Amino acid sequence: MSSFSVEAPAKVNLTLHVVGKRDDGYHLLDSLVAFAGVGDTLEFSPADTLDLDVTGPTADQIPAEGENIVLKAARLLAEAAGVSRGAAITLVKRLPVAAGIGGGSADAAAALKGLMRLWDVSLPPEALRKLALAIGADVPVCLAGTPMRMMGVGEVLEPAPALPPAWLLLVNPMVPLHTPPVFKARTGPFSEADPLTASPGDAKALAEALAARRNDLTPPAIIIEPVVGEVLAAIAATPDCLLPRMSGSGATCFGLYAGEIQARAAAAQLAATHPAWWVAPAPLLGR
């Protein structure tokens, strides 16, 4: 088989309600998850051994110590499918690390997709779902790759209503924000689940539906890294922004715009005023 590539798009939590907590300490979520047309790329080639090379603009953010999540996914898949062959994998890293947009989870999901193709193997859907969850809580939704209502700790997925054409502006202040401390800093009562039940007619209607909901992790994220509040304010101040919001546990935030022209204009404005920030306009992948 010749070389090929698989895209790993950024995961965006359009809403995130913390609805409870399990006895083991893991929080229960109800989240509307979608994907943006920007992300990492994984390239695959046949090989006798399993090797990973990491390149790209944010490659230096990946810790040198510890096993990369792509290799973890590869080894678990090889064990589950009884594969003894290797693979030469190149990860072109563009997304910031520890950024609330599922970069590592998207990479792991793309690794599973690519290696199943390279090795010509498949797993039953339930076995693949369990394997993905064993890699990380966001890997199952990244494996789905379409708008989903994500519940539990990430293991319960339902297709979300189709989302209308819209554009996102993803902005990260280049400050890593790890998930456990954000959950730990969260206070107050749990939220009620409030899933999106109908497809909004356009980007404005989507913004209105999202504005009636929230991301419960935004206040604790701002407590830990006040720059998150600065990012949200900067996005909100751009012309034509329909909604500013944080994704996941941060620190990446997004603005919602009706179209490409508005999103790119906002991107140019923020890139000029905050050159140290990571700024990426991208289409919302609605279905």
Give a quick rundown of the structure.
This protein is an alpha+beta fold and 287 residues long. The chain contains 9 helices and 10 strands.
Structural write-up:
The protein is of the alpha+beta class. It folds into two domains: 4-159, Ribosomal Protein S5, domain 2 (2-Layer Sandwich); 167-285, GHMP kinase, C-terminal domain (Alpha-Beta Plaits), CATH 3.30.70. The chain has helices at 69-81, 103-119, 125-135, 139-144, 179-185, 203-211, 218-224, 227-236, 260-273; strands at residues 4-21, 27-47, 50-55, 86-92, 148-152, 156-159, 167-172, 243-246, 253-257, 278-285. Strands 1, 2, 3, 4, 5, 6, 7, 8, 9 and 10 form a ten-stranded mixed β-sheet that branches.
